[in-house]
Automatic annotation (TrEMBL):
Pfam family membership, one: FAD_binding_2
Lineage: Eukaryota, Haptista, Haptophyta, Pavlovophyceae, Pavlovales
InterPro entries on file: FAD-dep_OxRdtase_2_FAD-bd, FAD-oxidoreductase_2, FAD/NAD-bd_sf, Succ_DH/fumarate_Rdtase_cat_sf
Entry keyword annotation includes RNA-binding: no
Transmembrane stretches, start-end: none
Name of the molecule in the record: FAD-dependent oxidoreductase 2 FAD-binding domain-containing protein
Domain FAD-dependent oxidoreductase 2 FAD-binding per the UniProt entry, residue ranges: 31-194, 198-403
Organism encoding this protein: Diacronema lutheri (Unicellular marine alga)
């Protein structure tokens, strides 16, 4: 079924498959949203907030949330709320260009600069949107690949940012009689053709290896805030091998070059406190994913490495920190890691490995989230946002930018789809009146 022919506007925010016929309404503008992840839910909320449209939200899974539920690194934005609320503090004037530069660098020449600039510009509205859902944002951290502190995490998040955002978005839709949710409904076809490609994938370098199921295909990701707060990565001999704050792709590449393809993430209690992740670490510990050790010798014993090697490494790191010159290129040292100087200092250890985090290829969209056909023009009535889209980020996506993309383009898609649906119904009415 063609969206416009039966006055359905389709908003693809999951995968590019299609839309089922869903009880066509008489004259009410209607938007069908395929996919109830972060992008789809944002689109649904925005469509309802900005227009009196009817929303049909379709998801193939029995519950909403998609892979967005697994993300945990917060949202990178241009504006940070000073108190987790609306009283926003604008970053320095160079903030916009620096954010764009960081994202373009990660994209390695493959990003869509116009869309990226729009993403960064509109990121300034995201804290207010998140706040309007009743989600408070905490202090910003400097996530890997970002040259500035600009990644925010919901205060209440236990493991996942998105679990908090997703439940807030679901709550916003739940009481709305104009929103119908169809779970367990897989969209199988669209009478439209589109020529996106699935070119790139992006990795999380720090997915946790569960000692009881090391080969489990689905892994939890360590919040990158922990790296941002001063965690170090060690190889099997107890030596650092990469700048922990380098772009994720670089860290992942370095880790995959290790014989075991895994590393140990070592973080001490002050860094955990600084990252506000004590609850997260506790929950990991309860699941057997984290080991604790008191002081350097205990850390060496737990890792099975030579204490002298580890001590030398930690001391070298302290020197790098003091001088701001690290042989591995690290330039930001948020907290001091001084296990050898303070023998009683508590440390946390996790085995980590790179894991697939998402895809970066897919449908091409314009700044109104309209899906572009192979020849370049927009496909009438079809909008997309989130991971189904390609090209926005290019070769790699910085932490917090995929979530940002869902919020910015998801809302854009919802808004423009609702407008298109209203325009289509208005056109029908005018045609009918003319015929009468
Ligand atoms: C472990 C992990 C960590 C991540 N960490 C970060 C991070 O640090 N920072 C960041 O910015 N991003 C991160 N991401 C990526 C980010 O979370 C995702 O890109 C984003 O949440 C995708 O949202 P989405 O709504 O586009 O897709 P999803 O959340 O995947 O939602 C898609 C929905 O579409 C549904 N669907 C699919 N096919 C069909 C069909 N045929 N019919 C009906 N429904 C269908 C699915 O069931 C799903 O519910 C991470 C992702 C993972 C998995």
């Amino acid at each position: 079924m063609m969206p416009v022919a039966n006055r359905v506007v389709v908003c693809l925010v999951a995968v590019a498959l299609g839309v089922a016929e869903l009880a066509p309404g008489p004259r009410r503008p209607r938007v069908v949203i395929v996919g109830g992840g972060l992008a789809g839910l944002s689109a649904a909320v925005e469509a309802r907030r900005t227009s009196d449209v009817h929303v049909e939200l379709v998801d193939k899974e029995p519950c909403l949330g998609g892979s967005s539920r697994l993300a945990c690194d917060g949202i990178s934005v241009l504006v940070a709320p000073a108190d987790g609320g609306l009283s926003a503090r604008i970053w320095p004037a160079d903030g916009y260009e620096l954010f764009v530069e960081d994202a373009l660098r990660a994209g390695a020449g493959l990003a869509d600069e116009a869309l990226l600039r729009m993403l960064v510009r509109q990121s300034a509205n995201v804290p207010a949107f998140v706040h309007s859902l009743g989600v408070r944002l905490g202090a910003a951290v400097r996530a890997p690949g970002h040259c500035r502190t600009r990644t925010l995490r919901p205060v209440e998040a236990v493991h996942s940012t998105e679990r908090t955002l997703i439940s807030a978005l679901k709550d916003a839709l739940r009481a709305d009689p104009s929103v119908r949710v169809h779970t367990g409904v897989r969209v199988v076809d669209l009478l439209l053709r589109s020529d996106g490609s699935l070119a790139q994938v992006h990795f999380s370098p720090v997915a946790i290896v569960d000692p009881s199921a090391p080969d489990a295909p689905c892994k939890l990701e360590v919040p990158l805030d922990l790296c941002a707060a001063g965690a170090v990565l060690l190889d099997s001999s107890g030596r650092r091998f990469v700048d922990e704050l380098a772009p994720c792709a670089k860290v992942a590449e370095a880790m995959l070059a290790l014989p075991s393809r895994t590393a140990t993430l070592l973080v001490d209690a002050p860094a955990v406190q600084a990252a506000g992740l004590a609850n997260v670490l506790r929950s990991y510990e309860e699941r057997g994913l984290v080991r604790r050790a008191l002081g350097l010798d205990a850390v060496a014993r737990t890792l099975g490495v030579d204490p002298l090697v580890l001590e030398t490494e930690i001391e070298a790191y302290a020197v790098a920190q003091a001088w701001g010159v690290d042989p591995l290129g690290k330039t930001a040292f948020p907290t001091r890691l001084e296990l050898s100087a303070e023998p009683g200092r508590e440390a946390f250890l996790m085995s980590v490995t790179p894991a697939l985090r998402g895809t970066l290829g897919g449908l091409r969209i314009d700044e109104d989230a309209r899906v572009l056909a192979a020849r370049g023009g927009p496909i009438v009535g079809l909008f997309a946002a989130g991971e189904v889209c390609g090209g926005v980020h290019g070769a790699d996506c910085l932490p917090g930018n995929a979530v940002l993309e869902c919020l910015v383009f998801g809302r854009t898609a919802g808004r423009t789809a609702a407008l298109a649906a209203r325009a289509a119904v208005a056109f029908d009415r005018a045609t009918d009146d003319g015929e009468r």
